[in-house]
Amino acid sequence: MERLVLTGTKKMTIEDHEQPTPKADEILVNTKFAGICGTDHALYNGLPGSANAVPPIVLGHENSGIVAGVGSAVEGFKVGDRVTVDPNIYCGKCFYCRTARPELCDHLSAVGVTRDGGLEEYFTAPSEVVYHLPETVSLKAGATIEPLSCAVHGVQLLNLTPYQKALVIGDGFMGQLFVQALQAYGIHQVDLAGIIDTKLKFNQEHFGVTNIFNTTRDEIPSDYDVVIEAVGLPQTQEAAVEATRKGAQVLMFGVGKPDQHFQMNTYEVYQKQLTIQGSFINPNAFEDSIALLASGKVDVEPLISHELNLAQVADVLEDKVPNISKAVVKID
Ligand SMILES: NC(=O)c1ccc[n+]([C@@H]2O[C@H](COP(=O)([O-])OP(=O)(O)OC[C@H]3O[C@@H](n4cnc5c(N)ncnc54)[C@H](O)[C@@H]3O)[C@@H](O)[C@H]2O)c1
Ligand SMILES: [Zn+2]
Ligand SMILES: [Zn+2]
Fold this sequence. Notes:
Bound molecules: nicotinamide-adenine-dinucleotide, zinc ion
Strand content: 25-35%
Helix content: 10-25%
Family: Belongs to the zinc-containing alcohol dehydrogenase family.
Pfam family, one: ADH_zinc_N
CATH class of the largest domain: Alpha Beta
Low-confidence stretches: none
CATH superfamily of the largest domain: Medium-chain alcohol dehydrogenases, catalytic domain
Mean pLDDT: 97
Number of helices: 9
GO molecular function: oxidoreductase activity; zinc ion binding
Order of helices and strands: EEEHEEEEEEHHEHEHEEHEHEHEHE
Radius of gyration: 20 Å
Keywords: Metal-binding, Oxidoreductase, Zinc
InterPro entries: ADH-like_C, ADH-like_N, ADH_Zn_CS, ER, GroES-like_sf, NAD(P)-bd_dom_sf, Zn_alcohol_dh
CATH topology of the largest domain: Quinone Oxidoreductase, Chain A, domain 1
């Protein structure tokens, strides 16, 4: 079978390799689609993602495919099932796992990060992280359930209720998923701030965004109950805190550089009684994400801008492919 291997920092090669064999508790997946995201950029450039990747490794942590084999102890799956895979595998034994916060696991491993992922024709995953895809969810959309689950986890960390007004800062794939997820979780008004007018308008016309702001020229009002920061730059992190009204919650979802800081008025945090909430990966969120897609409350297909093949992945990771909103790799 063909696979794309990260052999070192900024080094990728397509090679022929023996098909893996699933262990007793594992499922062999014939990959159909694998999404590419910022984590892959980080791993390609030798930086950590949710965990460290040690080359040689096959990336691809946003996967969908067809079950091609099941280990002897696997129940509930058979060859031919359409599936998506939660990449994150928790140890179940550490302090964080035993206090119902598995995403903070001290021994996190992940498909496409610490073990071979979906940028190959066949990969294996423990059955506990494999989920069935309903007929109404396409295999292409199935490859976006992992990032959608990150947004769902962020949303679930907040206290949401319909009267709240939310602002999403960031018009990328994640920001646009938040727009839909917040509405699905009952927020009555969602506004969007970004820098790409076409994307802002698209979300206003198709996804029910009330007000749009281009941060390069528009003033953002300070009257939001919920603010999602989905860019990861110091200026947008500052803007997120500044856009709050009293009692607001700010979700710091964007990933900054490891040594990055931003300025915050701590008196404002006190006086407005703000909650500043971090968000890391996507524990226990796959079922909700699948339900959001199956019910049509979240629609990802219009946000997928590129369908690539394995040979084009390195170009994406070298930033040679312009105007990517979301890229998925079709594995034939
Ligand atoms: N917390 C998590 O678990 C998690 C999971 C996935 C992604 N992320 C992070 O979320 C962030 C967004 O991810 P993405 O995939 O959408 O990235 P992306 O690169 O597709 O989108 C970033 C967007 O930010 C916009 N932007 C840039 N500067 C801006 C500014 N000054 N004001 C407003 N918008 C601006 C860009 O137009 C772009 O569309 C990244 O930092 C990513 O690493 C976090
Ligand atoms: Zn990802
Ligand atoms: Zn653990």
